[in-house]
Amino acid sequence: MKQIAESLNANISDLLETKIIELIAVYESFLGTGREGFEPPTAGLRVRQSFVSFDLREFYSKHESEFREWLYGRMSKKSADQYLSAIKRYLPHGVSEPKDLDRLVTKTKYLPLGIRNFLNFLEDQYYMDNLGGFSFAIWRKHLPTKTGNKKGEKIFLTDKDVVKCFKLIKEKWNDEVTINLYKLLVFSGIRLEHAYRLLESFDKRKLIIEGKVAMYPIEEITKGHKKGYFAFLPAEFARKLEKYDMMKLAAYKSRLTPKQWKPPVDSPVSPIRIRAWFQNFAIEHGVKTEALRFIVGHSPATVGEAHYYNLKKIAKEEYKKIVDKFPIPP
């Protein structure tokens, strides 16, 4: 009887151990360590994302050296050091979910920008798309790219802000170039300087139209770590574009920022905030993170040919989710 009992205990113990291992595997799959079948070559990653509460600072510390080298290769040392210093100084232990960042990101603009770059690093190097069970898209929602006033109030544009500013611009300037530049920013999410160069050098022969979606190549007019590939646009709008004689870039930046008008108009809209609005708008309509990064020009400057064509295809399909959802007419 004693031998039977010992044998039963051993079998039960083995069974429990097997089930626990299976549960851990399921839980880690929920948390996500990268794309299916991919194991990041970082020792202890499973331990960091096990049943122990996730700690962003602890996770960051174990990747800090590699992140620093990655960052130095993509921007000036001065900018990189500002991001690294902000994370070191202002990111405490205990941040386990995105909303924990809300009380921290107002201290300095370099903290949310630094953490955003850390997420970019994880996507680029480890193909990760979530931390602690939360997608990168949710983390980014709590990492504003701009603070509002001197007290650090965050400003996120609403669809109504975008519509109101569109009406103000039409009334104030009534200028085809200014209006189309504003629409171009709203519809594409690309940077102002890229949109400016696009209109300045526009060539209808380069325009690619597939159904409701249009794509215009911008790789030749973008530079460095702020490189882009295509401006994705509603085809109805893209067909109206042409090459324009442009004023200086600064003039259009002022025209698209009502608070800089004389007299100033109370509106939170600016080109940079339109870009942030576009990303939130796309996320709210279910656009995948990888596709969104390609659409707005956040993908790394060096992309393999096969991966490039795959991203282009995915981005085109994802853009269909928003092509006819914009709050202003094409």
Automatic annotation (TrEMBL):
<dbReference type="InterPro" id="IPR011010">
    <property type="entry name" value="DNA_brk_join_enz"/>
</dbReference>
<keyword id="KW-0233">DNA recombination</keyword>
<dbReference type="GO" id="GO:0003677">
    <property type="term" value="F:DNA binding"/>
</dbReference>
<protein>
    <submittedName>
        <fullName>SSV1 integrase, C-fragment</fullName>
    </submittedName>
</protein>
<dbReference type="GO" id="GO:0006310">
    <property type="term" value="P:DNA recombination"/>
</dbReference>
<feature type="domain" description="Integrase SSV1 C-terminal">
    <location>
        <begin position="155"/>
        <end position="325"/>
    </location>
</feature>
<dbReference type="GO" id="GO:0015074">
    <property type="term" value="P:DNA integration"/>
</dbReference>
<dbReference type="InterPro" id="IPR013762">
    <property type="entry name" value="Integrase-like_cat_sf"/>
</dbReference>
<dbReference type="InterPro" id="IPR031857">
    <property type="entry name" value="Integrase_SSV1_C"/>
</dbReference>
<dbReference type="Pfam" id="PF16795">
    <property type="entry name" value="Phage_integr_3"/>
</dbReference>
